[in-house]
Specification:
Among the domains are: about 180 residues, Acetylcholine Binding Protein, Chain: A, CATH 2.70.170.10; about 130 residues, Up-down Bundle (Methane Monooxygenase Hydroxylase, Chain G, domain 1), CATH 1.20.58.390. About 40% of the residues lie in helices and about 25% in strands. The longest helix is centred in the N-terminal third of the chain and has 67 residues. The protein starts with a helix and ends in a 7-residue tail after the last helix. Pfam families: Neur_chan_LBD. This is Neurotransmitter-gated ion-channel ligand-binding domain-containing protein. GO terms for molecular function: extracellular ligand-gated monoatomic ion channel activity; transmembrane signaling receptor activity.
Amino acid sequence: SKLASKLSSSSHHHTGRGVSPSINVTSSGSGTNYAMPPSASSNSTHQYLSAKRCQSAQSSLSSSAADLRELTTTLQELNSHFKKNVKLLGEIKDNIVKVYEKKEARPVDDTSGVHKLERVAVELRVVFLKIGEIDTLKEQFQAEAFIQARWHEPTLKGTDIDCFDANKFWNPLLYIDNSVGDIKNDVWHKVVYDGIDIPMIYEMRKVKGVFLENLELNDFPVDVQDLSITVSTTRTVNEVLLTADTHQLSAINTHAFIDQQEWRLHEHVETSTKLLSSPFTPSQNQHPAFSATCHAARRPGYFYWNVYFLIFFITVMAFATFSVTYNLPQNRLQLSFTLLLTAVTFKWVVVRCLPTISYLTTLDKYVLLSMVMLCVVCAWHAIIAVCPVDVAQHWDNVALLSLAIIYTVFHAVFFLWMYFVTYRRRRVMKRKDKEYSKTRMERLNSFGHHAGDESDAYVGSAATTVVRKTIPTGKNTQRMSIASEETNRLNPTDRNHKILTNKHTLEEQQHRVSMRQPSGINNSHTLPNNHTGQQLLLTSGDIEAMTMKQFRIGSLGC
């Protein structure tokens, strides 16, 4: 009965919404029977099937969307993994190519010259052969220098060195960065190879011209100027590494100097590296640069006698104006103004010797302080004219004594400041000269010729192509140098020489070996000689000595 009442209420509810199904409910002893009309049954079945189809469609759409999202995610992951794999394979390929090219050391040709895949270390050495006029006003100097660059070239190993052509091999493309105008530039090459190590190409050049240098004139006239030659390259810092020569130091010939009356050259040469940005290339790559700097100290004697003492005498003469009686101030002022104008005129004459600078030099400070003293004297002569007559004489004597004491103290302080401040760099330069000489001797002893050591590891500067070979002679081995003449060799007197020899070294070597060997052993089997066709290699110490000897006569050492 409760179920019947619910169905009836439900039917009334549907009837109220516009649906009027008729359901017959009969009760019997066995239970309640429900009977629906045929039309109501068909409508309910249709609605049920429609709802079922909608539900299945929705479920299928939701499952399709989920499958689509999962498929999209899978494709994205596959794409990212594919890109990573492609990038990884490309890196592996590049590494394999780099390793192979490095192993074979084969250069790659392009329109800009011969390039290498790895950065090449180029060692540089600069020798200042002659320093010409140092123009303080234009801030430039004239010089003649010898520049040596060397680098390893693996492609020469196993080739015919006698047929060496520098144009067919890699070159650092060096140039002088701080030159003014056209310079004279003579370039030649040589090869050093001992048959075991990697061959090394030497590029040597002799340059002569005018070079720009920013002069520091704070300590003028006791200043020390840096004279630099900067060598740069058109290649980028990723291609070339410019460093100082590890075997030989840069040097300077202090004997061939034109301005010795005005300057004194220090013996040491400092080297440094930096990076330059070329304004002619659109890329932002920087180019390496190597600077060799020598130092020239100005001789201040001329300025001491012709400037300092003259200004000192002019200023001291101002104290002589106190000899005129204080009641004649017009005469005192006339003399004081004359001395002041003389000092001003002298100052303008001194300024013409210097470039236009925005700071004061040591000489400017002294001259200006002396002019201040003259101005103070002039001011006192104007004040004494209005002082009472009874105290004027006393105050005039006090002023004279006070100004004399102040001027004396000024000179004492100025001399102390000159010694401890302006002369300090000169003392530093002398200390560096001693350190440089010590380091140079150590280099010569380390890489030069040693007693009893016939296997030298380095060959000094020479204007030929040199091949070093090892020739067995019994138990020991001797190094021999076979030289092939370069087509553009500068020295015409040595064109017929094919082998670099040193007679003095041969004699010393024979004497040392004869002293070491027993008297019964013939040393002709162990020493190179002219009869067997063997020659002793010129060592770096020998060539260095020859170079320095030729420096004394002002000529090129190779």
